[in-house]
Amino acid sequence: MKLRNRQWFWLIGLFVVLVVSACSAPTKPAITLTPISGQIIAGQDITVQATATDSKGVLHVEFSVDNTMISDAKVDAPQKSLTLPLTWKAVAGQHLLSARAFNADNLASDSATLTVMVSDAPAPAPTKVPAPAPTGAPTVAPTNVPGPVPTAVPGPCTNNAAFVADVTVPDGTQWQQNQAFNKIWRVQNSGTCTWNASYQLVFVNGERMTTLNQVPVPPNTAPGQTADLLIAMNAPAQPGVHSGQWQMRDDKGVMFGPVLVVKINTLIPVPPPAAAVTSPGAGYQGSTTAAVRVTFQGIGNTELASVTLFANGVQLAKQTSRTPTRQIVGVFDWRPTVPGNYALTAVAVDNFGQQTTSPQIIGTISVTPPTPQCTTAINFRADSLNINAGGSTTLRWDVDCANAVYLDGQGVNGHDARVVSPGATQTYTLHVIKKDGSADDRRVTITVNQPVPPTAVPPSPSRHVSGSWASTDGKYQLTLQEAFGCPGPDCAVSGELIELTGGAPIIDNVSGNVNWNNGALSFAIERPGAAGFNGTVNASSTQITGNLGTFNKQ
Fold it and tell me: 20 to 30 Å CA-CA from 229: which of 160, 267, 406, 414?
């Protein structure tokens, strides 16, 4: 009983394998030829329509007469239904016309055939001979009338060809394994026969590197003219040097002309390039009212040909390079007009035709702009950066769009102030944690001036600037402190300048000199790009004038 069950198991398994194999087997394209109606006369140009169909698309159709291929019609992209004409100059006798279709997998259809009978061309009508003159009519003696001049019969023409140039793929050209290429030879008709549609370029020796044994020669190539002979080929999979030989054949099957050679070098495989969309990131948000800046790139293991940007499969931009390079970067301002979800991809192609598609970067485009995220703003300052020993100043800070704020390790509000009285010069740190989790530290140093006994008495009269000053136009507040114990008329000063802009005040440290005798005052503003101050203090030390305006002592 167990043996019988096992036999059934194997029979069922075999049946499943056969069904799967039958379902997965590739299908061949189908092709039909349209019959020809009416009588066909030798020398007549006849046209036969071939209709080919295939689910994966038809790429080309071969036409043959009496099992000799006369043309190979190709299309740029596979087509599921394709109709092509065959034109042939009829020759007397019975002939077999046939056609085969090839699909995108290079599978050939069964041949569609059509038998035609071609009649001889009708003989020319006989020339009418004039009747003899009636009996009894007077005989007229012939005059010296010249007879017809016999027409010279031309001798047979001769076939010959001369190599002109390798239009494409010169000897030694390097290709990747199985890479497609078009080989074109340029030859000259160096004989006396005109090449017609029955002349062919045929394979004679070496490696074909194609499924074709022969290709038609461009018709009506007269003596002295040149013709470009093209064959679509593929580099062999085996690395190394490969060559094939081809030669011309006339309409009677006679070979002539030089042997044309294609010689290439198949390289060891090179890995395909890499492609990426580097910005925006996954989950990006945009709108139909603003551009989305997209950066995309290709990186190759050999020189790159291009990198192309797509959105939902539609090409947006293509970037190439004028010089050989292994990296191409493109930047494109994308302006989508329809809201929805979009997948951005990049496709990199190298010079061997290898291409790679990047991972998708998926995001959303809406009708209205997305809500902008806030930007962290930090302003940390002090009312005075220089104080005397025992004095005090106020630290002030304004922080927007942050997760947390700390002053010297202690949590504080984003907008606050604190009075400090350091006994010596001290630096205070405002530690800010931003919305993205990163940190930003700002520091303010308060310089404490220790008392020093004066070592020199300034000459009298003297002018002094220590104290607080305000500009008459209300734009500035100035605090200055002269150094203790100046030995001469020039004394160092330092302090801070507060610019009142209507928003947050701008506070800058200043340092410079004042002359006690003539009142010349100058100081530098310790901020990059600030111009500084030049002016004078009046004899009563109550007013300062200069390039920032007029200041009165407070």
Answer: 267
